[in-house]
Amino acid sequence: MFLESQKVSCVIRCVSCDYVSTREFEKGDFVLKEVGTCPRCGGNLIIYSIFRDVKEKERRSE
Q1: Dihedral through CA 2, CA 4, CA 5, CA 6, nearest 10?
Q2: Whole-model pTM?
Q3: Burial readout 8-29 (b: 16 or more C-beta within 10 A, e: otherwise)
Q4: Whole-number Å distance between alpha carbons of 12 and 39
Q5: Listing from the earlier edge strand, what are the strands of the sheet with 44-57?
Q6: Percentages (nearest 5) of helix, strand, coil residues in the chain
Q7: Cβ pair 42, 6 in contact under 8 A
Q8: Which residues share a beta bridge with 21?
Q9: Is 45 helix (H, G, I), strand (E, B) or coil?
Q10: For the purposes of burial, counting CB atoms within 10 Å of the CB of 45, is it exposed (0-12), middle (13-18) or buried (19 or more)?
Q11: Which of 1, 4, 41, 46 has the maximum number of C-beta atoms within 10 A of its C-beta?
Q12: Is the pLDDT assigned to residue 4 strictly greater than 80?
């Protein structure tokens, strides 16, 4: 198996309510960074976690 692509994403959460969203990683992102205000309650949004999605590409049998 070969690694085809690596996509890094961030989970964004509100500190006041249960709002959660995911977006692509941007240069300068780090866990607990404030990234805006919640569209539901107006609370602070923070980066809760950063993760990498790895898609695997199978070798062709020859």
Answers
A1: -20
A2: 0.75
A3: eebebbbeeeeeeeeeeeeeeb
A4: 12
A5: 20-24, 2-14, 44-57, 34-37
A6: 0, 60, 40
A7: no
A8: 12
A9: strand
A10: buried
A11: 46
A12: no
Spatial CA neighbour of 50 closest among 16, 33, 4, 17: 33
Distance CA 37, CA 40 (A): 9
Distance CA 22, CA 18 (A): 13
pLDDT tens, position by position, 28-49: 999 999 999 999 999 999 999 9
- Pull the structure tokens for residue 31: 């866990």
Q: The tokens 């205000």 sit on which residue?
A: 37
